[in-house]
Amino acid sequence: MPDQIDQTLEELLGYNDQEIGDDLFVVDVMRQVQKQRRTRRWILFLFGSIGALFGLAGALMLSDGISMFFTEILPTTALMQLPLFAAGIAAFYIWFMNDDLMLNS
């Protein structure tokens, strides 16, 4: 009985040239892979945008307190806000482009 099971497993796991040569199978698999990549990108874009909106809403809620803090300490708030905005833009750019950089490599 174990010999029959081993023989059946060898037949199932064996390499068969006739089944592998079908190009339609390969084309179908690649089409499904592309579809899954598009779905993944849309999901990442959707939830990343929602997260960015919540982050922006939180920053706007805190901006009055932060701006009041900087105006009491330094009269030139533009000098303090420029690096803050630059860091925010750089962080958003790195976050947004990081996914594409990982997909290409």
Task: Give the tags.
105 residues; mainly alpha; 4 helices; rod-shaped
Polypeptide structure, described:
With 105 residues, this protein is mainly alpha-helical. It has one domain. 90% of the residues lie in helices and 0% in strands. It contains 4 helices and no strands. The protein has helices spanning 2-13, 17-20, 23-73, 77-104. The longest helix is centred in the middle third of the chain and has 51 residues, at 23-73. The mean pLDDT is 77.
Fold topology:
Elements: H1 2-13, H2 17-20, H3 23-73, H4 77-104
Tally of extended strands? 0
Mean pLDDT: 77
Strand content: under 5%
Q: How many helices does DSSP assign?
A: 4
User: Which of globular, elongated, flat, extended, rod-shaped describes the shape?
Assistant: rod-shaped
Spans of 5+ residues with little confidence (pLDDT < 50)? Answer: none
Tell me roughly what share of residues is in helical segments: over 70%
* End-to-end gap: 49 Å
The string of secondary-structure elements, in order, is HHHH
How can the largest sheet be summarized?
Answer: none
Radius of gyration: 28 Å
Q: What is the structural class?
A: mainly alpha
How many domains would you count in the coordinates?
1
